[in-house]
Amino acid sequence: MTRDQNGTWEMEKNENFDGYMKALGIDFATRKIAVCLHQTKIIDQDGDNFKTKTNSTFRNYNLDFTVGVEFDEYTKGLDDRHVKSLIIWEGDVLVCVQKGEKENRGWRQWVEGDKLHLKLTCGDQVCLQVFKKK
After folding, report:
1. pLDDT tens per residue across span 64-101
2. What is the pTM (predicted TM-score) of this model?
3. In this structure, are residues 131 and 112 in contact, taking their beta carbons and an 8 Å threshold?
4. Measured between alpha carbons, how far is residue 46 from residues 18, 33, 53, 92 in Å?
5. Is the dihedral of CA 61, 13, 57, 49 positive or negative?
């Protein structure tokens, strides 16, 4: 594994995205549209500074952060909540804890070969997304 996550990544797998969104309280109609979407992630990484874009035909989400620095995140276009986010390295895995209304919320992201893995958690629901480097 590597800490280098730079690049453009195309979604290949999206397991239990509906269950994850349901745990976030996202409405039925939005969930049904979202599970059909193909996402592209663009990551611009300079050491521990990240500028990320997640793009789809339905909604886009941008997130800029510095590893180890807690920040206020507004999940606009996702579940529209305000959370306190802290992202750290655990080995070569980025780990994010999001504190707010929902328990056990966050994500883990890592690279293996030409694949970017993203494990999203909310409550007891886990979604696994896999992206291939373009």
Report:
1. 999 999 999 999 878 889 999 999 999 999 999 999 99
2. 0.94
3. no
4. 33, 34, 15, 15
5. positive
Nearest C-alpha neighbor of 116 from the set 40, 14, 9, 42: 9
Backbone angles phi, psi at 61, to 5 degrees: -140, 125
Angle ∠(73,79,85) on CA atoms, nearest 5 = 25
The whole-angstrom separation of Cα 14 and Cα 119 is 10
Q: What is the DSSP string of 45-108?
A: EETTEEEEEEE-SS--EEEEEETT--EEEE-TTTT--EEEEEEEEETTEEEEEEESSSSS-EEE
What confidence score (pLDDT) does residue 76 get? 85
Q: What is the largest CA-CA distance in the chain?
A: 39
**Sign of the CA dihedral running 117, 9, 124, 64:** positive
Locus of tokens 């990320």: 52
